[in-house]
Design a protein that fits this description.
By secondary structure, the chain is of the alpha/beta class. It is about 35% helix and about 20% strand. The chain has a four-stranded mixed sheet. Bound molecules: pyridoxal-5'-phosphate. The site of pyridoxal-5'-phosphate has 14 residues, from α4.
């Protein structure tokens, strides 16, 4: 008999009951160090008092009105996001893939409005992940995601990640945009080089393309800057975000320049739930915390400490771990042993992590952790490595 919850996930047989900061307890009362953070979603950890306060305050007033009306929380969050970034305008969604779909529509409409409707194709990177809609799986092209779901939208030309020459060679008169993650998340915590990102910006300008950076996982202070592309000193034209901005509440957003969003006029796009007052209360609260003085310094300091510690554990167990990589608190260790086994044993030893491609165990702690949690993570990882035969 099919499970009542459609069995699209091979779920781990654990149910969680409550969380606090970087810790989470299952229904048997067992405590875990949560360095998955709901896959980079619970940016401020579990049950952050300020987020709880802002959400419940809003819940007592008003939950939903629809986008038929102005929504004050959207206006304040969009004002703040545009002040803090390259963007001039924001569309709010409930998830990452919806934000990314909005980016696809912005690009198509831009070229249509500016007299180049033939520029309707996208260059995307191998190893990329943009979500599970039919369009997003058409972009990522991984066999596991697309098999059996065709015919898919033929609009995505895939090239190797972090290889500018190959990308430039793939540009045709039909190319409308370049779309990449500044750090591959599902693809194995692979940071693009700053030179590559600068090259993408120059290439997009040279060929009249829009640059879309998917910061759904890397955004909202995860790497120690509000958005990861800031490290390269460039800006995109369009940027889908989600995950961290909701701190655990479903929120996504598509940020764009005025130029790129030229065609997004009334009637061209919409969402019933997107940007509702509850979501906006939480989004604004997350932004309050991550933009407070010293917060980003904290992420950078604690991220550097964790990464240095991971590198030491790697050096102690060269037959188990190959390397540590990432930026800020978007980190990963590449395993020489089966990655799924490592994730399972880490959990048995009290720490939640999540696997990615390229044999990487992702380490995505809440941005609020301190040295105590770093030390605990490194202890558990070290202990777990010792359990594998050398
Ligand atoms: C998680 C993720 C998505 C999809 O987000 P959903 O909320 O699951 O739809 C898209 N792009 C990147 C880079 C992601 O990490």
């Amino acid at each position: 008999m099919i499970p009542v919850v459609m069995p699209t996930y091979a779920r781990i047989d654990v149910v969680f009951e409550r969380g606090e900061g970087a810790y989470i307890w299952d229904t048997n009362g067992r405590r875990y160090l949560d360095f998955t953070s709901g896959i980079a979603v619970n940016a401020l950890g579990h049950a952050h008092p300020y987020l709880v306060e802002k959400l419940t305050e809003q819940a007592r007033k008003l939950w939903h009105t629809s986008n038929l009306f102005r929504v004050a929380g959207q206006e304040s969050l969009a004002t703040r996001l545009t002040r803090l970034t390259f963007a001039d305008t924001v569309f709010f969604t409930n998830s990452g893939v919806e934000a990314w779909e909005c980016a696809v529509k912005v690009v198509r409409k831009y070229h249509y409005e500016t007299g180049n409707p033939q520029k309707n194709r996208f260059i995307v990177a191998g190893g990329a992940f943009h979500g599970r809609s039919t369009t997003a799986i058409a972009a990522a092209k991984s066999e596991k995601m697309v098999k059996g779901f065709g015919p898919l939208l033929d609009a995505f030309d895939q090239v190797a990640f972090d290889n500018l020459n190959e990308l430039r060679a793939a540009i045709t008169p039909q190319t409308g945009a370049i779309m990449v993650e500044p750090i591959l998340g599902e693809g194995g915590i692979r940071p693009a080089s700053p030179e590559y990102l600068r090259g993408l910006r120059e290439t997009a300008d040279e060929f009249g393309l829009l640059l879309v950076l998917d910061e759904i996982q890397s955004g909202v202070a995860r790497t120690g800057k509000l958005f990861a592309h800031e490290w390269a000193g460039i800006t995109p034209d369009v940027m889908p975000i989600a995950k961290g901005i909701g701190g655990g509440f479903p929120v996504g957003a598509c940020l764009a320049t005025e130029k790129a969003a030229v065609g997004m006029v009334p009637g061209t796009h919409g969402s019933t739930f997107g940007g509702n007052p509850l979501a906006m209360a939480v989004g604004n609260a997350v932004l309050d915390v991550v933009t407070a003085p010293g917060f980003m310094d904290h992420v950078n300091a604690i991220g550097a400490s964790l990464q240095a510690g991971l590198e030491q554990v790697v050096a102690r167990h060269p037959s188990v771990l190959e390397l540590a990589r990432g930026k800020g608190l978007m980190l990963g260790v590449k395993t020489r042993v089966p990655t799924a086994d490592m994730v399972t044993r880490l959990r048995e030893n009290g720490m939640l992590t999540v696997a990615a491609s390229d044999n990487v165990v992702r380490i995505l702690p809440p941005l609020t952790i301190g040295e105590r949690e770093v030390a605990e993570c490194l202890d558990i990882l070290d202990k777990t490595c010792r359990e594998f035969p050398t």
